[in-house]
């Protein structure tokens, strides 16, 4: 008969094994990217323009294009996602329509990214005549990111104790005043987490931008939101599949730059999240 201590030890070992199995591939991938990519991180590689069909020069246009696309996605996705989550969680009644919307949001979060790319191609590129541009790509990625932001924001809002709202109402505050001054400040850490997860996914996607914004080779920077742009995920795909005789260090260096950009976004979000967590009253 196994006693309680033995059961606890077995459970601990199983959890430790599961953690090792999850962490090991991530460490190996990051180690490989760092080993092959670090030698490529020179000033010319980061801030130079591509030359010789992307076999030489730098990846600066792809970096700028990725930043533009991430900013455009954030501008469209964050306000609408947070506002939609506030309405669904704080204002909408519990009826069949609300449940249908919630089910649609959950299902949209699992739609393959290539479907969003085709949707963006049909709606933004052809129907709205935006063409393959930063604006069309940002709108496509924003629609893809919305379900993640809405779901994460609703979870963060729901985590705020109901008593906070009741006390605010008892003091004469309106529903919006309660949401604005009581609920949102306490939900911001969770909202930031979901937002960064959504934007990080958008920054690393290739399929949606394949049809809506990505360009194969542009030795110059985009001048407006209606221009095409080189983007790091598509640039990595092109280097790996369509450009012969490219050094693996260039490929891994580009991957490392993209990973560092996502990591910087996460660090900034974690710092802001820690500030708001210190202000929590519960």
Automatic annotation (TrEMBL):
Top-level lineage group: Bacteria
Protein keywords: Cell membrane, Membrane, Transmembrane, Transmembrane helix, Transport
Transmembrane region(s): 12-38, 58-88, 100-128, 134-153, 250-272
GO (cellular component) term, any one: plasma membrane
GO BP annotation list: phosphate ion transmembrane transport
ABC transmembrane type-1 domain residues: 63-273
GO molecular function: phosphate transmembrane transporter activity
Membrane protein topology class: Multi-pass membrane protein
Stored PROSITE patterns: ABC_TM1 (PS50928)
InterPro entries cross-referenced by the UniProt entry: MetI-like, MetI-like_sf, Phosphate_PstA
UniProt keyword Iron, yes or no: no
Annotated compartments: Cell membrane
Similarity field: Belongs to the binding-protein-dependent transport system permease family. CysTW subfamily.
PANTHER family: PHOSPHATE TRANSPORT SYSTEM PERMEASE PROTEIN PSTA-RELATED
Protein name listed in UniProt: Phosphate transport system permease protein PstA
Organism: candidate division WOR-1 bacterium RIFOXYB2_FULL_48_7
